[in-house]
Amino acid sequence: MAFVQPVTLGASRSRNALASRCVPICDPTAPAPSRSPRIVPRMGLFDAFKKAVSPSPPAASAPSGGVDDEDDALASVVLENSDTANVPASYTRLLQRVNALESEYEAMSDADIQQSIAKLRSSHSHSLGQKVPDDVIASVFAAGREMTFRLLGLRPYDVQILGGFALHFGNIAEMATGEGKTLVASLPVILNALFPVADSPVLVVTINDYLTRRDSPFFAPLYRFFGLSVGLVSAGMQPDDRRETYAKDVVYVTNSELGLYYLRDNLSMQPRDPVLRALGFCVIDEVDSILIDDAKTPLIISSSSAGNGQGDQAQL
């Protein structure tokens, strides 16, 4: 597996990280974002309060609530081992586009936003694996930011928008605990589910069942608003139930469940037996734990071949 250049967001105080990538068929394991139930909502609600009490609409180039001034200190996205590197120019340009669209989406009703995104999907012919244009990225992120505020009471900071760009472009985003990694992941999930890179769900892979059960219902209203179906894979599910879940647009699953069923699919004897679809865009939470620490212990499954008693074994 080739590792991409890590990107650090803000003054990082821990090694908690998110990663995203387009996963080839030979690389199944990919987790999702996690959010501190206490710290993240407090941060988002404070931002929402500032937005609500803002005396006038923000300028087109700045996010509402005057948040950009405080975020400037955090939004210095630096490449690992380089304290002086600035935000990538492409990220800065996209962030400016998102902020410029904010007042436009604020003035829209929910139905208008839904129609706008539907029109965007129909007007941009998108083939699987095709690069998403910058104007589409900016529009989806701006609409997602507004609807996150309306539906969840949380408004992504500029630094979280930048983190979303990092994930969309297949990088590792390192953020401190409490800086809202789960919220960061939601916008690239929406974008890649609306404009998929493969005939597959967007996988949000976490380190344990608690996070999947917490985050899936929390973000489900946001995803469903954009016409996306949401599924949750948990331990003990039957193959038919898993197959039905993987047919959804967005699927929450743990790294162990995903990895073990990837191996099971490779031991399948009949074309109807596999449960996973083609693997495409994936967001990995706690990427250092999953791709480094947990990777030290291989996943191994075995099954007996009918008739001869010999075992077939698959290892990841």
- Please state the CA-atom Rg, rounded to the nearest Å: 20 Å
The percentage of residues in β strands lies in: 5-15%
Tell me the number of strands. Answer: 10
Mean pLDDT: 74
The parts where pLDDT drops under 50 for at least 5 residues are 1-8, 10-15, 21-85, 307-311
Using the coordinates shown, work out and report the CATH topology. Rossmann fold
**How would you characterize the largest beta sheet?**
8 strands, mixed
Key words describing this protein structure:
Rossmann fold, 10 strands, 11 helices, 13% strand, globular, 45% helix, eight-stranded mixed β-sheet, alpha/beta, disordered N terminus, 316 residues
Secondary-structure blueprint of this entry?
Blueprint: E1 6-8, E2 17-22, H1 39-52, H2 67-74, E3 78-79, H3 89-106, H4 110-123, H5 134-152, H6 158-168, E4 172-174, H7 181-194, E5 202-206, H8 209-225, E6 230-232, H9 239-245, E7 250-254, H10 255-266, E8 281-285, H11 287-293, E9 300-304, E10 311-315
Parallel strand pairs: 1-4, 5-7, 5-8, 6-7
Antiparallel strand pairs: 1-3, 2-4, 2-8, 9-10
Describe the structure.
- Mean pLDDT is 74; it is low at 1-8, 10-15, 21-85 and 307-311.
- The chain has a single domain (6-299), classed as 3-Layer(aba) Sandwich (Rossmann fold), CATH 3.40.50.300.
- The longest helix is centred in the middle third of the chain and has 19 residues, at 134-152.
- The radius of gyration is 20 Å and the shape is globular.
- The strands form two sheets. It has an eight-stranded mixed β-sheet, with helices on both faces. It has a two-stranded antiparallel sheet with strand order 9-10.
- It contains eleven helices and ten strands.
- It is 45% helix and 13% strand.
- α5 (134-152) crosses α7 (181-194).
